[in-house]
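Sat 14:20. Reprocessing the chain from the morning session after the first attempt stalled halfway. Input below, unchanged.
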Amino acid sequence: MPRTPTAPAHLGHAAATGEETSLEQTVGSWTDEGNSIYKVHLDPGGKSCTVTTVRRNGEVRTTEALLKFDDKTNRVFWGYGYFLVAQGPTPQEIRWRVNSGAARDFVWKRLPRKGVVEATASSAAPRAEPAKSEVAPKAASLAPWASQG
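Finished this time. Tokens:
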């Protein structure tokens, strides 16, 4: 009986069937509705990704192994609070669906390479205080590491 090829565990069920998610789908640069920039790099060993976040106010935070593939569920998780929903090997938009609790889902949109440089430069540039309508939603709704409350 011929053997069906299996994908490495860190690639997820996606590599074999195209139905699930993989860490490779997250690699690249993204933005969210609050205009934060997320730069995602696959870690050595391929079982997690490090994320550098650049907030609109210029604050930069790098979190090692923030995104992890779970072999039991065949899902990519952001911390413990969110899991990845994406279509195709190189999606232009991914949704982080809340795993449990009262938080809401959020969406990342892929940035073109040129847009990453421009967006990062404009994020870090000093700015006047934003108008109330420009103020981003609470970080807790966008980032699982932010404190709730």
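The longest strand covers residues 60-70.
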